[in-house]
Amino acid sequence: xxxxxxxxxxxxxxxxxxxxxxxxxxxxxxxxxxxxxxxxxxxxxxxxxxxxxxxxxxxxxxxxxxxxxxxxxxxxxxxxxxxxxxxxxxxxxxxxxxxxxxxxxxxxxxxxxxxxxxxxxxxxxxxxxxxxxxxxxxxxxxxxxxxxxxxxxxxxxxxxxxxxxxxxxxxxxxxxxxxxxxxxxxxxxxxxxxxxxxxxxxxxxxxxxxxxxxxxxxxxxxxxxxxxxxxxxxxxxxxxxxxxxxxxxxxxxxxxxxxxxxxxxxxxxxxxxxxxxxxxxxxxxxxxxxxxxxxxx
Length: 297
Description:
By secondary structure, this protein is of the alpha/beta class. It has one domain: Rossmann fold. The protein contains 8 helices and 10 strands. The protein has helices spanning 40-44, 51-72, 92-106, 119-129, 160-169, 181-195, 209-223, 243-255, and strands spanning 5-6, 78-82, 110-113, 134-139, 153-157, 171-176, 204-207, 237-240, 260-262, 281-283. The strands form 2 sheets. The protein has an 8-stranded parallel β-sheet, sandwiched between helices. Helix 4 links the parallel strand 3 (110-113) and strand 4 (134-139). The longest helix is centred in the N-terminal third of the chain and has 22 residues, at 51-72. The two termini are 35 Å apart.
């Protein structure tokens, strides 16, 4: 197949391009994720340190993973929504993301985002509009930054790679709306894990044909031509402008194939001091390869 799978009808467009949507309008205030409160991660990535320092950081990373596991264990199967923090609520992409959040919540999924403004806020807000559950996972940010107000739980991480594990571990699908470097990084991270078999073929949906068509065209016309990707890799992407079609694809590709069903959540253990946000679906079985590919809710 020499092109990415895309939807039919009035909500589709030629993947060769198109510029029907106006350029992004940055939100007011300081840029989201401008920096971190701590230099710990940058120091960790600078190279070898003393053995004691490396042991201390390894222990800190372990504790951060445990904290994430405990806080997210009962959130229920999620769909993670990625997108720019720079769109305010007047922008069409914000409105689109809000509809996506509502649609996913109606399917019974917990909507997970980075917990910030823009697309993240819109998706979380859409989930809350229909009584769904809403989770935010983010990296530590400058003091003046605040999580969006539409979250049932906000989990903040010191290390980017720990945050990435959490965003993937509890997700049965990924919806990608327009965004910048961070959005592209998160999208290709998910695609790489699927392509290499580290996680199963969870659906990856690109919403916004005009925005994503040039990138998909580059993948098809350059990467495929030069054989840096395989024809079947293009099948990993589903591109549409329709929220209904995006949600239908998520339901078809995630709910049935991975044994999700409406049922009660696992029993919490008081002696482990377990707590969490109640989800709607409980997976009968989470198919994956590798210990870090995912966990049952």
